[in-house]
Design a protein that fits this description.
By secondary structure, the protein is an alpha+beta fold.
Length: 201
Amino acid sequence: MMRFRSRLRTYSVFGFTLVEVLVAQVIFAISVVGVVALMGRSIESQRASRELREAERLAQALMADLSARGFLELAEGIERVEQAEPQPLLVDLGRPPADLPVDEHVVGSVRGAFVAFRRVEPLGLVDGQAQIGAVRLWVIVLWLDTSNPVMPPPAGLRVSDLVPRMADPSDPEFRPYVGHVQLSAVRVNDAWLASTAEVSP
């Protein structure tokens, strides 16, 4: 009988009490909640980074398209393109470069995730004449940035409703939930440069 009791006492020394188990579970639960919150924020940050990279790629592609055109073509399109608001162009997110029609859906892409605007503006006249000496090429890509939980976009707002003024902090219509990438470049009249080089001694 004495041997049995001594064995029980020996075994109880190496066990855990109920309080110790509960404290360990509370610590584990707090750490798991923190890790889950960090993972959610990390996923949101990766999504925002993907949107920014895609918008930069789109803006560079649109600027390359404008830069590849001849100066006369750009100058002829000034009256057509230069408006109070340039005409929007809706673009899908994650659409791979493929020889498919624009209106055909590609698996993995998000329809109408970006809206792009481009404009060609005259910079000056040559010798006071009607000839344009240079043009400014302007491209801006807008999207709804939902990565900021403090100021999310309104529920009914669509990407097609975005305008460039919403990305300008100095404009009264500025909205902090509108993500944007803006590029601009100057293109000089090649024909005017060539004629100037011929005239100069």
